[in-house]
Specification:
About 40% of the residues lie in helices and about 10% in strands. The protein has a single domain, classed as 2-Layer Sandwich (Nucleotidyltransferase, domain 5). With about 80 residues, the chain is mostly helical. It has helices at about 5-15, 30-35, 50-60, and strands at about 15-20, 40-45. The chain is globular.
Length: about 80
Amino acid sequence: LEKTPPELAGDIINRGIVLTGGGALLRGITDLVRLETQVEAILADDPLTCVARGTSRLLEEIHRLPAETVSFRVS
């Protein structure tokens, strides 16, 4: 949070942190994140697939975003 832009840090503090991926399933990780950050932390619904599903949704709707907000870099 120390390196997070202020407008995003405010959202994180107000709305909390959603844990995703396999690491989110580690026993006690949600409590540890809460303790270390002093910010509410919750486990995402279906943490193993939620990022892939969200990315798929974004790609289906990417044409709706203003061109200046979309940037692709192939490495």
